[in-house]
Design goal:
There is one protein chain. The chain has 2 domains: 3-9 and 192-265, Helicase, Ruva Protein, domain 3 (Orthogonal Bundle), CATH 1.10.8; 26-188, Rossmann fold (3-Layer(aba) Sandwich). It contains 12 helices and 7 strands. The protein has helices at 3-6, 26-40, 56-67, 83-93, 103-119, 136-145, 165-170, 176-181, 193-206, 217-227, 231-247, 255-265, and strands at 45-50, 71-76, 123-128, 156-162, 182-188, 214-215, 252-253. The protein has a 5-stranded parallel sheet with strand order 2-3-4-1-5, with helices on both faces. Strands 6-7 form a two-stranded parallel ribbon. Helix 6 links the parallel strand 3 (123-128) and strand 4. The longest helix is centred in the middle third of the chain and has 17 residues, at 103-119.
Amino acid sequence: MYLDYYGLKEPPFNITPNPRFLFYSGKHREAFNHLLYGIRERKGFVQLTGEIGAGKTTLCRALLEELGPAFSTALILNPVLDADQLMKAIAMEFGLEVKGLDRLETVAEINKFLLSQVDQKKDAVLIIDEAQDLTNPLLEQVRLLSNLETDDRKLVQIVLMGQPELRDRLNDPTLRQLRQRITVRYHLQALQRSELGQYIQHRLHVSGSKGGPFFTPMAIWRIHRYTKGVPRLVNALCDKCLLAGYVQQRDTIDYKMVGRAVRELEGEIYV
């Protein structure tokens, strides 16, 4: 609705995890580098945690683009499965045909595939998003998958991504073998207030902005106060701000307009 008014080519504050819009704050850059290091150095297990909406999935999408064709990748977005389903989902993500196979046969196919990747001088990466939803038995299945190896290397690098509860889950004494194998860990924090203006301008620029709309310093302060710097909440609020600006035919988003957008997000009815 407001795209033409502001001269934008696409919505700048969609909440979908589009890597083109990824803003590399200090913490996001550190998280990205930790992921790359763990995978490229074949550390086996990498753990990334962060609050809901912190940008983990967007980082994951950017990571997949960065790895490129030298890596075979499997991405599990919904790990709420039983053990058989999880193994089949992993196999299918690697492009394997495992219909009608039981779990042992499926794991055998995965092992065969991973060995073939070694012959082709390619690395394999398994990324499990929302890993805090994995039950202890499923986490143990993932650990067993990491046992697939040759004499000198792990056949698959595994990235566990999830909310802070994942850290608590992995402290369970029954998962100590898995916890000991996680050698790279990072917790992604929200944007600082000093980064928020840059974040907003980055997304506007990617969307085709030629300079507007303009968020005042007090507007940015109020956005950070409400969202605590969580990117998904920032996107939702800024989208409402641009809509409010369009309705009022204004190119400047100020403190008062952010307040209006907050009330709309909270579902308050007013005239």
